TrEMBL record:
The keyword rRNA processing does not apply. The chain crosses the membrane at residues 128-148, 168-186. Keywords: Membrane, Transmembrane, Transmembrane helix. CDD domains: DnaJ (cd06257). The keyword Transmembrane applies. Residues 8-73 form the J domain. This is Molecular chaperone DnaJ. It comes from the Bacteria.
């Protein structure tokens, strides 16, 4: 059965992720005071809220625990690109993490590397497609030009056909050599430049 989306400790306390320890403590004490007043009236919801607030505060007020917790939140954010978390996907994350005996930080690192590699692959594919389509358009233009300027005289038409075949072979050979240069010299340099421009 799918679980409902869990609130983060920041949401439970009503603070932002960049809040200082002092701010978190101040909000916690204020919230606790309010719900303890409700607890005295026998409110079960107030008791549950106090437990949630206390658990959130104990985690976020400890620098080491907060750092680890933030890493878990970052993992969830990156995988879903900041979108709302699906409870079923959440269960899959937990199953993967436990099955591979890895921390959220380790999985985050692996996924970030995978996403960067996929991004580079798609970038190379995009540039290669543009190059090939460009060559195809040029060749199509040559074919169209030949069809427009072709002669009706059989002898002249045969001579034109021979010249076009030679031109086609030259163009295809030039395109192939151009592709080798483009794919194995130009693109690697551009890819390296692209990596260097990324923020560390």
């Amino acid at each position: 059965m799918a679980r409902t989306k869990r609130e983060t400790y920041y949401e439970i306390l009503g603070v932002s992720r960049d809040s200082s320890r002092e701010t978190i403590e101040e909000v916690f004490l204020k919230e606790i005071q309010f719900f303890r007043l409700l607890e005295t009236s026998g409110s079960l919801e107030a008791q549950e809220k106090i437990l949630e607030l206390t658990k959130a505060y104990l985690t976020l007020s400890d620098p080491q625990k907060r750092k680890k917790y933030d890493g878990e939140l970052d993992f969830e954010f990156v995988l879903l690109d900041g979108k709302a978390k699906d409870p079923e996907i959440e269960e899959a994350y937990d199953a993967y993490r436990l099955g591979h005996k890895k921390s959220y930080q380790e999985i985050l690192k692996e996924f970030t590397k995978f996403r960067e590699e996929m991004g580079e692959t798609l970038w190379v594919l995009k540039k290669t497609t543009i190059y090939l389509v460009g060559n195809l358009l040029v060749y199509s233009g040559l074919v169209l030009y030949r069809s427009i300027t072709s002669h009706t005289n059989p002898m002249e038409a045969k001579e034109d056909s021979s010249q076009f075949d030679t031109l086609s072979l030259f163009f295809l050979g030039f395109s192939f050599l151009g592709y080798l240069f483009f794919r194995f010299t130009y693109l690697p340099k551009q890819l390296e430049k692209r990596r260097n421009q990324k923020p560390n």
